[in-house]
Amino acid sequence: MSSAPTPKQGTRPVAVVAFAQSPSQRRIEQANEVELLMPVVHDAYNAAGMTKDDIDFICSGSTDYLIGGPFSFVTALDAVGVWPPKRESHVEMDGAWALYEAWVQLQEEECDVALVYGFGKSSLGDLNRILALQLDPYTMAPLWPDQVSLAALQAQAMIDQGLASEEDFARIASRARHNALSNPNAQVANDKSMEELLQDDYVVAPLRRHALPPLSDAAAAMILVAGDRAFDVVDRPAWITGIDHRIEAHALGVRKLTESVSTTKAAEVAGVNDGAVDIAEIHAPFAHQEILLRRAMGLDESTTVNPSGGPLAANPLMAGGLIRIGEAANRIMDGSASRAVAHATSGPVLQQNLVAVLEGAS
Amino acid sequence: MTDQIENGPVTMLSTPIRLDYHFTAGLAQSRSLRGYAEGQFIGQRCPVCKKVYVPSRGSCPVDAVATTEEVVLPNTGVVTTFCVVNVPFAGQSIEIPYITASILLDGADITFMGLVQEIPTDEVRMGLRVEALWVPEEERGPTLASVKYFRPTGEPDAEFSTFEDFS
């Protein structure tokens, strides 16, 4: 009989046993958030052979700024079923951070099973304006700097320091969207060469169209189980053997945009380089950020990056990070990888970063 | 520096913010909204607990299943609780005092807010039987504004036990 690997952090091993997501789409006009989320939560329950009554703790990630209405996470609970009353929490962050909170809760002996979900419809408002509001409200947000321009500043700084080239950005986008051809949940999948992509116009130099993520609507849900009980659910649970998240300064001017010290620190604590990494799902919404994050985590060429296509193929805000963890977990659960790394980001130009290491039982 | 000495530090600034959104009503709520245009309250029944939600958001919050069976509800219901609004506020469109009530439509398992008129404010009470008065057909649209207000039907009051779970 298999046994759970000893986790690097925490006292109880925790595993992903089921993951479900809706296909990312540019604009879902028929379904509201509850109608979008409910089938995904049901898919996760079904994949785990569970019902809502098996869940000890629920945590979600979403933001009212996307919907333009207050307490949208409370409304979303209609999709989940919280009667009789359940322990439930929410983070105004990507679902990956909801997973982190659930992982903390699962360290307690009386909490064995958690449901984690994230959802976001980027289509409801102007994302460039919405995301400007996460900046310093006195000196930056009033200027409404859009996220593409901020990313372009970062990309240009990388080019100026000789860390990357526009060809690198195109090569990454080409590979991501090629990989996405085998991902039914991807939104942008095609087979275009680097040379073809370099014909794209600039959106904000040095970022051409292909270096930007699509705008996506989607939801994702995951079930976590603590301890050997995970083996009752699936043959090969994806054990979270390491997880950590770090945040950098809010003011962009005090950060070195060409490095991600928060990712490096989180990767060290999570133990990314304690063993070979078969695959990494990296939440790099802009092509150049993949280079930066890969370097920050110390991943070499032996690691396959974003086999799902990653955020360049589908980028639902508030779910995209959780989807990285889910895609990595799927590859552990199906046996195609033994050790995987998942990364999630939040905030302007990679301000906050979470890194998780997932492993199959030996 | 000179500026700070002469004028003091900046203690306040105004940064206007405006965001525009599309609203996705969703399938269930769209049906309810279209019902208002037709002068009907349209709810949905949970296939598990059989409760009727109006307007439905497409799910039963207790059982977490999709509500697909549509239920057309009558115009009549009962005031489960209420308040008399005496406070003027910006954008107020009705002359104070007026009554805002929680109304349980006959056959529904959830209340919603409505105006109650054609009754003195000191006579409104829990258990009062009311009916919806719709605006003229040509003025109706997919909005709750299609309901002009609720007014007493003149029937005897409902027993408290029939609505105590909703008050």
In brief:
Chain A contains twelve helices and twelve strands.
Biggest sheet descriptor of chain B: 5 strands, antiparallel
Distance between the termini of chain A: 10 Å
Order of helices and strands of chain B: HHEEEEEEEE
Q: What are the segments of chain A in which pLDDT stays under 50 over at least 5 consecutive residues? A: none
Task: Give the % helix of chain A.
Answer: 25-40%
Give the SSE string of chain A. EHEHHEHEHHHHEEEHEHEHEHEE
Could you tell me the number of beta strands of chain A?
12
The number of distinct helices of chain A, counting runs of at least 4 residues, comes to 12
Describe this structure as you would to a colleague.
The complex is a heterodimer of chains A (362) and B (167). Chain A is 31% helix and 20% strand. The model of chain A has no long low-confidence stretch (mean pLDDT 96). In chain A, the strands form 2 sheets. A 10-stranded mixed β-sheet of chain A has the order 3-2-4-7-1-8-12-11-9-10, with helices on both faces. Chain A has a two-stranded antiparallel sheet with strand order 5-6. In chain A, 56% of the residues are buried. By secondary structure, chain A is an alpha/beta fold. In chain B, strands 6-5-4-7-8 form a 5-stranded antiparallel β-sheet, with no helix packed on it. A 3-stranded antiparallel β-sheet of chain B has the order 2-1-3, covered by helices on one side. In chain B, 10% of the residues lie in helices and 28% in strands. Chain B has one domain. The mean pLDDT of chain B is 93. At the A-B interface, helix 1 of A face helix 2 of B.
